[in-house]
Amino acid sequence: MKPMVCIFAHPDDEAFGPGGTIAKLSQTREVYLICATKGEAGAKKGRKGGRNLGAIRAKELLKSAKILGIKKVYFLGFRDGTLSNSLYHQVAARIEKILKRIKPDTILTYEPRGISGHLDHIAISMISSFVFERLPFVKKLMRFCITAARARAVKEYFIYRPPGYKRSEIDLVVDVKNTWGVKLAAMLQHRSQIHDIQRILKVAKRFPKKENFLLRVK
């Protein structure tokens, strides 16, 4: 099978999001990951930012990626929280350059609302869709999403919390029971984000071990 590339805004987006699916797909094909930032603005032990937080989170992502079976991680070097600041074409150009080298037939990213409403997530989703349309060798775009019920179970996180998707709007549901342990192990590598891990796992207990996607296919 041809390789696939996951495109995310921050370290932990891969594990906290579609980690079970990534672990499953990496069993049968080469999987690469592009991370636009190093998550410098993420909270650590209750405090925002930190001089070395970006380096810490980058190392956490590399450990997580190894567990998920990801072949290589590419960091684009943009600053956490800046992806919506008219950087779209710069980010797209760097992503496109990597994709032309790897020649994947599939891209995996977040859905257009960014799951949590994080503007970096939304920007990367939009940019990934833009690049998908530009590159003829990329045949499928997988956009990780959550159900409306799952979204309602999450407490307020950002100013805007997206409502999630109806079952009728979801194109693909992946059963990740067999790779849930791998996903959990990858999540736990992101120790600087333990507050988010606890929040996510508390909600996850209430729902089936499944991951949902919107699909676009050429």
Itemize the secondary structure elements and their pairings:
Elements: E1 4-8, H1 13-16, H2 19-25, E2 31-37, E3 43-44, E4 47-48, H3 53-68, E5 72-78, H4 88-102, E6 106-110, H5 114-117, H6 119-134, E7 140-145, H7 148-152, E8 172-175, H8 180-187, H9 194-204, E9 210-217
Parallel strand pairs: 1-2, 1-6, 2-5, 6-7
Antiparallel strand pairs: 3-4, 7-9, 8-9
Helix pairs in contact: 3-8, 4-6
Describe this structure in words.
With 218 residues, the chain is an alpha/beta fold. It is 39% helix and 21% strand. It contains 9 helices and 9 strands. It has helices spanning 13-16, 19-25, 53-68, 88-102, 114-117, 119-134, 148-152, 180-187, 194-204, and strands at residues 4-8, 31-37, 43-44, 47-48, 72-78, 106-110, 140-145, 172-175, 210-217. A 7-stranded mixed beta sheet has the order 5-2-1-6-7-9-8, sandwiched between helices. A two-stranded antiparallel ribbon has the order 3-4. The chain is globular and about 40 Å long.
In percent terms, what proportion of residues is strand? 15-25%
Residue windows where pLDDT falls under 50 for at least 5 positions: 45-49
Instruction: Going across the biggest sheet, name each strand in turn.
Output: 5-2-1-6-7-9-8
User: What's the overall geometry?
Assistant: globular
Rounded to the nearest angstrom, the radius of gyration is 16 Å
Mean pLDDT: 94
Structural class: alpha/beta
Number of helices: 9
The total strand number stands at: 9
